[in-house]
């Protein structure tokens, strides 16, 4: 009896909770994407954004639940209103999704995917893996591991 009374009172609140974003009929997103060297999008209207984060890849649609995530090396895919996809490689950074459907992506380094060379990335990866074995300094080893992770992500993105 007491549980039923609680549920009746809580039911209107439960109906108002926020859920996953809907792809159809939702408002557009305002998207800003920048790195220290270039602004790629400034308050542009986009349909969807796919981002690589430390917790995994996820897609952002209009009305997405607000979140703040740390980027890992990988490919950011931006789908424009007409459905065309633009792909960028990011080394690290952050992405912020706000309640008003605005999204800010700030990358340490970002490059359009078509400007990367897979043979250069593979050569860098081999060189870094070879130098890792001879590195005893902890700071140099950590920097080398970060570079290896980024080059592995570039190779994966381009294959």
Give an account of the 3D structure.
Strands 1, 2, 3, 4, 5, 6, 7, 8 and 9 form a nine-stranded mixed sheet that branches. The protein has helices spanning 2-15, 118-133, 138-158; strands at residues 29-34, 39-53, 56-60, 67-71, 74-80, 85-90, 93-97, 102-107, 110-112. It is built from three helices and nine strands, in the order αβββββββββαα. The chain starts with a helix and ends with a helix. α2 (118-133) runs antiparallel to α3 (138-158). The chain is 32% helix and 36% strand. By secondary structure, the chain is of the alpha+beta class.
Please trace the helix and strand order, writing H or E for each element.
HEEEEEEEEEHH
Strand content: 35-45%
Q: Work out the number of β strands.
A: 9
Main sheet: strands, sense, barrel? 9 strands, mixed
Termini Cα gap: 61 Å
Q: What's the gyration radius in Å?
A: 21 Å
Alpha-beta classification? alpha+beta
Instruction: Specify the helix fraction band.
Output: 25-40%
- Average pLDDT reading: 84
Oligomer: single chain
Unreliable runs, pLDDT <50, ≥5 residues? none
Count of separate DSSP helical elements: 3
Shape: elongated
């Amino acid at each position: 009896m007491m549980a039923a009374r609680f549920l009746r009172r809580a039911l209107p609140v439960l109906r108002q909770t926020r859920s996953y974003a809907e792809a159809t009929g939702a408002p557009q997103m305002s998207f800003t994407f920048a790195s220290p060297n270039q602004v790629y999008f400034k308050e542009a209207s986009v349909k969807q954004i796919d981002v690589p984060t430390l917790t995994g890849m996820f897609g952002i649609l209009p009305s997405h639940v607000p979140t703040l995530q740390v980027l890992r090396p990988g490919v950011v895919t931006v789908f424009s209103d007409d459905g065309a996809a633009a792909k960028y490689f990011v080394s690290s950074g952050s992405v912020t999704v706000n309640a008003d459907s605005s999204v800010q992506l700030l990358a340490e380094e970002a490059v359009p995917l078509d400007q990367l060379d897979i043979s250069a990335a593979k050569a860098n990866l081999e060189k870094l893996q070879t130098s890792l074995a001879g590195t005893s300094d902890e700071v140099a080893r950590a920097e080398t591991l970060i570079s290896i992770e980024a080059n592995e992500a570039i190779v994966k993105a381009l294959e």
